[in-house]
Amino acid sequence: MKNRILYTFLSVLLFISCTEKPVIVPEFVAPISDRVILLEELTGVRCPNCPAGSLKVEDLLQLFEGQIVAMAIHGDVLSEPLDESKYDFRSADAEELEHYLLPFWGKPAAAVNRIVSDGQQAFLNPDTWSGYIEAELAKEHVLDIQLSTTYDESTRALTVNMGIIPLKDMSGTFNISLAITESHIIDAQLNSTVVIPDFEHNHVFREMLTAVPGDFLASELTKNEVINKSFSFTLPTDDDLWVAENCHVIGFVSLNEENSKEVLQAAQAEVVH
Q: What is the model's pTM?
């Protein structure tokens, strides 16, 4: 009888000890930072794994709301239109920009503030992108950027005013860049072995309003000494693309040193607001 009771007790104890306890995963909280990170996604309509990369970008934009801006670059590799494509997202600027972000070893890849890690400037595994973003947000916030746009619907003329406010004295070679992106473009996209005919392409890089590596800004930045720049551009006339309401401008300041092209701060503004 005692043996039976002991056996029953041990059985209950074993059952309790083997019962899985729920693992409580703390909710992710984005780091508090005034930095805005530039995420440059290298993609292409012939890239079978790129829809997963695009979805990851959308997740990151929600996760780090207001702390990152994104460009989807259809430059060279796997970017030729499909037979089912209506549009060609490639351009001379996109191809030059993709090559500027070398080395990378495939697509989808993403450059995060153009930092270099393990010899790469664009990182293949989308699951690692958030870690690079967090690391960039933890860095010192050294300058602010203010963007404003004025758009004339009748002439399609766009004026962009960009104010750069250094938050400390800095020396080096600093470049300024301004790009236009367009979202909500519905067109074909390869997904694994299947073509999605109505894939929504967002943050598509359309054109640089500066040189692709950026225009020279300064070699000395003085704390609180504001630098104002103005840019003008006329949106091309197209029945389907260059929809002003779907376009954004992205401005950023970066280093232009032999060993660093790191982006110090980025900003984004709607063309029509």
A: 0.89
